[in-house]
Amino acid sequence: METSNQPDPHWMVTALAALAHEHRLAAYRLLVEAGPPGVAAGEIAARLGLVPSSLTFHIQALLRAGLVTQRRASRHVIYAADFAAMNGFIGFLMQNCCGQGVVACAPCAPVQTDFNQAQTA
Amino acid sequence: METSNQPDPHWMVTALAALAHEHRLAAYRLLVEAGPPGVAAGEIAARLGLVPSSLTFHIQALLRAGLVTQRRASRHVIYAADFAAMNGFIGFLMQNCCGQGVVACAPCAPVQTDFNQAQTA
DNA sequence: TTGACGTTTCCATGATTATCGAAATGAGGA
DNA sequence: TCCTCATTTCGATAATCATGGAAACGTCAA
User: How many alpha carbons fall within 13 Å on the CB side of residue B55?
Assistant: First the structure.
């Protein structure tokens, strides 16, 4: 029963810290929007207005946290969001920070992206 | 249709940073477990093995981020998790970091205790 | 009013993070 | 091979964060 491997608190701290910066959160959102094809380092830097070395500094935090993947395409280095990692990240928050037994937190209600999924629950 | 007021990226960075520390994440989880009754500052410090001034330092980060509430009960100061804030926090992540249009991220799947969802995609 | 308790503020110290320029590395194209 | 482009590494600097002791503050009981 694939219960989505639960991340440990130590990793959570690393991942939270990785996202806890204006530029890194922006970079991550950029990669989420781009999807699996990803975005080249230089283009991320350009869109965020960062010098190359700063981009590397920030994106390596995301890389170390396992939130993004890295691959090489010719001369470019392409970064892409790791959705499985984000899955585990959010899963931890919902299971550990949303009140187990407490009903005050309604995690699933807000999403429903936009495609009408007739999910009964 | 109460769509859960969407937090802005700036607040997200503040909240992420607030949780991105071993002691603060532990404190927050403690408060989540305690629920609405909350826990006194001294007891949080004792359970986490922190000196009073350090506890104050860390918990004020959570307070500034709006993730916890503070109230006074006699000589004690009681802190409690703000579940609405965590709701918004997770909501932002699911809407902005989970791939809009991309199906690779299955936000709600992990929680749903264990009922078999026949999600084809 | 006095005293004890719980908590916060203040202060100094050390550690970590963020930034940018310059140099080094790696990967094509001529 | 030589040159250029894309990215990373290195080094220095400034800023922010984390820690704990000591003092101050507010609250309650006697």
Answer: 19
Q: Which of B9, B67, B90 is nearest to A23 (CA)?
A: B9
* C-beta within 7 A of nucleic chain C, residues 37-96 of A: 50-54, 57-58, 61, 72, 74-75
Q: Which domains does chain B have, with CATH numbers?
A: 9-96 (1.10.10.10)
Write out chain A's pLDDT in tens, 121 residues: 554 567 899 999 999 999 999 999 999 999 999 999 999 999 999 999 999 999 999 999 999 999 999 999 999 999 999 999 999 999 999 988 787 654 445 554 444 333 333 333 3
Measured CA to CA, the distance from residue B81 to residue B37 in angstroms comes to: 9
Find, among B117, B14, B106, the residue nearest to B67 by Cα: B14
Report CA-CA distances (Å) from B48 to A37, A77, B10, B30, B121. Answer: 43, 42, 29, 9, 43
DSSP count for chain A of H helices, then E strands: 5, 3
| Lookup: tokens for B44 | 């949080």
Task: Judge whether residue B56 contacts strand C, using its CB and a 7 Å cut-off.
Answer: yes
Residues B71 and A5 sit within 8 Å (Cβ to Cβ)? no
Q: Which amino acid is at B71?
A: R
Distances (CA, A) of B74 to A68, A86, B78, B80: 48, 42, 10, 16
Contact state of A90 with B99 under an 8 Å Cβ cutoff: no
Q: For strand C, is any atom closer than 7 Å to the CB of B60?
A: yes
